Amino acid sequence: MQPVMNPEPSMRFEHPFTKPNADAIFRSCDGVDFRVHRAILSEASPMFETMFSLPQPSTPSSDCNDLPAILMAETATTLNAVLHFCYPMPEFDFTTIDVLAQVLEAGRKYAIDAILSRAVRPLRGLFLDEDPFAVFAVAYNMKMADEALLAAHESLKWDVPDASKLGMVPGAAFVILMHWRARCVVTAIDFMHGQIGPEDRQEGEWYISDQVDWLPCSVCKECGYFVSSDWGECESESVLRQRDFVQYVVSALAKRPCGSALLEEDIEGVAFKIIPDDLNCMGCQKTAMDMLYRSILPGLCNALDNALKRTVPLMLDF
Predict the structure, then answer these.
(1) Of 98, 63, 48, which is closest to residue 78 (Cα–Cα)?
(2) Cα–Cα nearest to 279, from 236, 221, 223
(3) Plot region of 301 (φ>0 → left; ψ -120 to 50 → alpha; else → beta)
(4) What is the DSSP track for 212-277?
(5) Could you tell me which of 51, 107, 203, 235 has the fewest CB atoms within 10 Å of its CB?
């Protein structure tokens, strides 16, 4: 990149790159000057090293030390973040995924390893929780297969947003994601039907046709589960209402084909659809629901998610 003179700085932007001993000036595309050190930036980026080796313009900048200003294509916000990764400074705090996307693109452009290795962390953390569709878009544009797959699976927990809210997602990426999601719906529903009477039972997994054990209340006689014992406790077992359960599951998985969809609905409403009809005692109902949501459904959710990861690959075009 040829160092050039840029018009006078046009805006105020607070940043820490103002050292008087700097030996170069980066000027952002919106007119903000950053005083930088060639040696530090050359170590951080081979592209910067090449840039500094180019002939310098004979006309100085307006800086009081007559340093030439190198015009950069990035905005002040992006350039500030990029320089944070080049210098030994605290981690940059990204407030929006848009800025993160621009910084990652700059990191690829200038071959800055620190950005490509460290700036991806928010994609796996805060922004993944906030908007997995946007994370998928960034990962797709950056050709980050692992992050794209992670975001794709996280997006299954969400309803598909309106097209107006998918501005960051390229058309090709959206098509790939939606085709993959459709395959996940089919696979998830097939998986749940297979849990009713599986031909190949996996040890340690719970199936819908299995009995459910719990400790009903010790005074319960109405529901017919009361059994006296030397310890004053009793254990009961029953089979969930399988067809009602699967009907509920199919409806939920058609919108969000993942394990967490089974736990996000109204707890009591779901439980009463699948616990035995003849469990009339309120105490026993509560105990059965606790067992359902503490032990049974979490295991079923994990088994479903693992099945999706094993059998539905994300076919990226890079």
Answers:
(1) 98
(2) 223
(3) alpha
(4) EEE---TT--TTS-----TTS---EEEE--HHHHHHHHHHHHHHS-SGGGGTSS-HHHHHHHHS-T
(5) 203
- CB-based contacts of 194, cutoff 8 Å, min separation 6: none
Measured CA to CA, the distance from residue 75 to residue 56 in angstroms comes to 22
Retrieve residue 312's tokens: 């539905």
pTM for the complete prediction? Answer: 0.79
Specify the amino acid at residue 243. R
Burial of 157 (0-12, 13-18, 19+ CB in 10 A): middle
Evaluated on CA atoms 310, 313, 314, 317, the torsion sign reads positive
- Contact, 136 vs 155, CB < 8 A? yes
3-class SS of residue 134: helix
The pLDDT score that the predictor gives to residue 234 is 44
Are 3 and 57 contacting, i.e. CB atoms less than 8 angstroms apart?
yes
How far separated are the first and last CA of the chain, in Å rounded? 28
User: Tokens 């993944």 belong to which residue?
Assistant: 128
On whether residue 51 sits in a domain, the answer given is no
CB 99 within 8 A of CB 78: yes
Contact 86, 40 (CB under 8 A): yes
| Residue 267 CA to its chain's centroid (Å) | 25
**Domain range holding 297?**
211-311
Q: Do 14 and 23 meet the contact criterion of CB atoms below 8 Å apart? A: no
Q: Does 26 fall in a domain?
A: no
Q: What is the pLDDT of residues 249-267, one digit of tens each?
A: 788 899 999 998 887 755 5
| DSSP state letter for 292 | I
Q: Is the pLDDT of residue 5 over 60?
A: no
Q: Is residue 252 in some structural domain?
A: yes
Does a structural domain hold residue 135?
A: no
DSSP for residue 24: E
